[in-house]
Each structure stands twice: as structure tokens, then as C-alpha cells.
Design a protein that fits this description.
alpha/beta; 18 helices; binds nicotinamide-adenine-dinucleotide
Length: about 425
């Protein structure tokens, strides 16, 4: 099939490359000429494991190409995906739909023949109706259907998530569109991934409900961690104790510095706004967002406490900057609020991240970025493990003790065991233990 992907970011590029790998003929469009130029040279604009090889092999096979020219990109396409950003709107936290609507207008100007317009961006309920209206107004002659097909991939594991999804959600009542979507995803449901058809509005809500539920699970265990700290308990035992119950499940029960990233913070906020506008506030999600927001700065206080209650004039080594391992994405990473709070308290920051430094430089200033964890730890008064990259999982603890000015570590991901740290003579605090 001929497929066009409008927006070649994390979602558009990964989805486009995977569809090409299924054998479809895919054109990825982006309005950022620098991004398209780099892609045409085989340089990935993002760090995602395995993506460069997947893109290279499909470009070589002639199934995947890149352009800034939307009209040329969608010519002859049976499905046109919208995978542009939907960030939080400045001021009120609603989803900013200006990129989605701009893409819809551009698509309207270029369609030729029946086409299925598939919204893959995360958008509030009713956005599909508006996209349909925009296109019908601009092109009363056009034959098209607007479908919702939210994406559930996780950065860092995006390719395997796309190729082996738990489910594929498709929102449409249009029989022709249903046939196109079935054909497009045939390789996946042959592989036993269920293809769930539902109404368009239900599909739009499903994406927000999934993210809000996961954000709630994380926030719940974070609050249990605080309770464990206060009364004497180990949150990892509690998480295992509840997670083995099939009704609860063990995933997303790792206590830590609070959720971040390009999706949970903005999607929980957008859901809160949508529900308020509908007169049915989602109080649980409102609370989750508020609790998570205050948690990040609270983690800085944990670090300050281990440093003796004051970090003015002291050096803090930060291990990990991205919101999770195996991505270079810094959007809403907890490290941002933590570092800013430490800087407000007068600390000097030395940081290392295996892939995130280039993006971190755009959001965090006055940080001494180091090429290795050792350079960051050298002479530091306290260290904080913020992102659980594999590179930080088996540090030579004797060397940690030797290079730091004061051997002290706050482990916001509970990577190390308190006993082993005590044995090495490193002052140590985890989360909820
Ligand atoms: N990143 C994730 O892990 C993830 C997972 C699931 C869903 N989503 C959702 O998918 C959507 C995209 O997210 P992302 O992280 O890929 O965003 P991104 O910012 O990485 O990429 C969006 C791209 O769209 C391009 N673009 C914007 N308007 C355009 C237009 N009119 N024509 C062509 N290109 C245009 C931008 O230049 C940018 O490259 C969002 O709604 C997001 O919430 C993201």
C-alpha cells in the first residue's frame, strides 16, 4: 500500500519505518528541512535503538523516502497519517492542536481520490470531527474518511512496541476505512496482535485513559514509597507484594522521581481540561498531576539532605538526564526540575548522560556536561542517580568512593542495594526503602 506520514518525529519516523518494513511504500514528510536533509543522508534526528538500521534497510529497498513537500508526499497515498506534535498549550494546559489542524488543511489541498486520513497524534476527543470538518470545508468534492489510530509505543523500545503491540486501536465507523486499516496492519494481526475497532471518539479517549491510568499507577507507588520512608517499610517489597496480583500487575510499580517525558505530563493535563469542559472532572487524574509536579523538586530536597542540609558551594554529580533510559528525549524530564532546584539552592552541577546531553543543553544552562560518569563524580560532594541507564547499573563502587570528595549517593531509581553501599562506606539513600 502507499502510505504517507505527516510529521517525522519519534512517532512518525518509527511508524513510517515499521510500515515500510511490513512491505508498504512509505513517504515520511516533515516541515523541518534540516530533519529531512539529515534523514536523506542517513542521519537519525533522534536516538532510538535499532532505528538507523531499520531506516537504512528500507531506504535501500526503495520502500521508504523523505520529503518536505507534503503534496508530493501524499500523491497516490491510500492512507495519510497525521503524526505531528500536540504539546501543552501555553497558559492553560489544553492540547495545542494547531499543528494537527494545519496539517489537515495542507492535506485537504493535496488529496486526489479516496484517501483515509489517520490521526496518530494524541488528540482530545472530538478532534477527528474537527479534522473532518476542515477537510470537507476546504474540499467539498473530496472522498475521504478520518480515522483515529492512537499510538502506544514507548520511546527506547519503540520498534518492538510498534511491531509487537499489545493491541492496535482503530476508531472509525466507515467500512471502506476499516478495510484499508485492516490491510495496513495485516502483518501485525497475523502475528496475533488484536486489532480493536471502535467509534472514533472512543479511540481518542482510549489513548488518554491509558496514559492517565499508567501515570496514576506510578504516582500511587511513589506515594506508597513516601509512606514506607515515614513509617519503616520497603516499597520494593510492597510493589512485589501487590504486583503479583494479576488484577494489579507488576509493571509501572517502580518508585522513583515522578513521571516525565513527552506524553504523560501533557496528556494527563489535557485529559483534565477535556473532562472539566465536559462537566465531568477527573479528580483522580487532577490529583495525580499535582502530586507528580511537586515530587520532582522534593527529590532535590532529598539530595540536599544527604549533602548535610546545604548544597551552597557544593558540587552535585547527576547521573542521567533523560526522562528514561535509551532515549535522548528531555521533554519534561524530572532531571530538569531537580537540577533547577539544586541550582536555586546554590549547587554546582556536573552531569553525565549517555545520549541526552545535546538535548539537555537546550533546556539546562550552567551545567558542566561530562563525557563519562567518572568525570561527573570526580570531586563531587554528593551524587544523584536520576535515570537508570545500563551504564549506571554496575558502577565500580570502590572507584565511586575513591573519586568523590564525600562518598554519598541518592539513588532515585533504587538500582543499588543499601547493604552493598553501606559495606563500601558510601552514604546512600534510595526511594521508599
Ligand atoms: N513520543 C512518544 O513516545 C509518543 C508515543 C505515543 C504518542 N505520541 C504522540 O504522537 C504525536 C507526535 O509525537 P512525537 O513525539 O513524534 O513529536 P515530535 O515533536 O518528535 O515530532 C513531530 C514532528 O512533526 C513535524 N510537523 C509539525 N507540523 C507539520 C506539518 N504541518 N507538516 C509536516 N511535518 C510537521 C515537526 O517538524 C516534528 O518533526 C504527539 O501527539 C504525541 O503525543 C508520542
Amino acid at each position: 500500500m502507499r502510505v504517507a506520514m505527516i510529521g517525522s518525529g519519534y512517532v512518525g519516523l518509527v511508524s513510517g519505518a515499521c510500515f515500510a518494513d511490513f512491505g508498504h511504500d512509505v513517504v515520511c514528510v516533515d516541515k523541518d528541512p534540516g530533519k529531512i536533509e539529515r534523514l536523506n543522508q542517513g542521519i537519525m534526528p533522534i536516538y532510538e535503538p535499532g532505528l538507523d538500521a531499520l531506516v537504512a534497510s528500507n531506504v535501500k529497498a526503495g520502500r521508504l523516502s523523505f520529503t518536505t513537500n507534503l503534496a508530493a508526499g501524499i500523491k497516490g497515498a491510500e492512507a495519510v497519517f497525521i503524526a505531528v506534535g500536540t504539546p501543552s498549550r501555553r497558559g492553560d494546559g489544553h492540547a495545542d492542536l494547531s499543528y494537527v489542524y494545519a496539517a489537515a488543511r495542507e492535506i485537504a489541498g493535496a488529496i486526489d481520490g479516496y484517501v483515509v486520513i489517520v490521526n496518530k497524534s494524541t488528540v482530545p476527543v472530538g478532534t477527528g470531527d474537527e479534522v473532518e470538518r476542515i477537510i470537507a470545508d476546504a474540499r467539498p468534492d473530496a472522498e475521504f474518511a478520518v480515522v483515529s489510530n492512537p499510538e502506544f509505543l514507548r520511546e527506547g523500545a519503540a520498534i518492538s512496541d510498534f511491531k509487537r503491540p499489545d493491541r492496535i486501536v482503530v476508531g472509525t465507523d466507515d467500512e471502506r476505512a476499516r478495510a484499508v486499516m485492516t490491510e495496513l496492519y495485516r502483518p501485525l494481526f497475523l502475528n496475533h496482535s488484536p486489532l480493536l475497532f471502535m467509534g472514533r471518539r472512543s479511540a481518542e479517549i482510549t489513548k488518554y485513559a491509558a496514559n492517565a491510568f499508567l501515570a496514576t499507577k506510578i504516582t500511587f507507588i511513589n506515594e506508597m514509597a513516601d509512606l514506607c520512608e515515614a513509617v519503616g517499610g520497603n516499597v520494593q517489597d510492597v510493589a512485589r507484594g501487590i504486583g503479583l496480583d494479576n488484577r494489579i500487575g507488576g509493571k509501572f510499580l517502580n518508585a522513583g522521581p515522578g513521571y516525565g517525558g513527552s506524553c504523560f505530563p501533557k496528556d494527563t493535563l489535557a485529559l483534565v481540561k477535556t473532562a472539566q469542559d465536559a462537566g465531568t472532572p477527573v479528580r483522580i487524574v487532577e490529583t495525580v498531576a499535582a502530586v507528580n509536579d511537586t515530587r520532582k523538586r522534593a527529590m532535590a530536597r532529598k539530595i540536599i539532605q544527604l549533602a548535610g542540609g546545604d548544597v551552597r558551594g557544593k558540587t552535585v554529580a547527576i547521573l542521567g538526564l533523560t526522562f528514561k533510559p535509551n532515549t535522548d528525549d528531555m521533554r519534561d524530564s524530572p532531571s530538569i526540575a531537580i537540577i533547577q532546584a539544586l541550582q536555586d539552592a546554590g549547587a554546582t552541577i556536573r552531569a553525565h548522560d549517555p545520549e541526552g546531553v545535546e538535548q539537555a543543553r537546550l533546556v539546562l544552562t550552567n551545567v558542566d556536561y561530562c563525557d563519562t560518569p567518572w568525570a561527573a563524580l570526580e570531586g563531587a560532594d554528593v551524587a544523584a542517580l536520576v535515570t537508570e541507564w545500563d551504564a549506571f547499573r554496575a558502577l565500580d563502587l570502590d572507584r565511586v568512593k575513591a573519586v568523590m570528595k564525600t562518598p554519598a549517593m541518592v539513588d532515585l531509581r533504587n538500582v543499588y542495594r543499601p547493604e552493598e553501599m553501606a559495606k563500601r562506606g558510601i552514604a546512600y539513600v534510595g526511594v521508599g526503602r
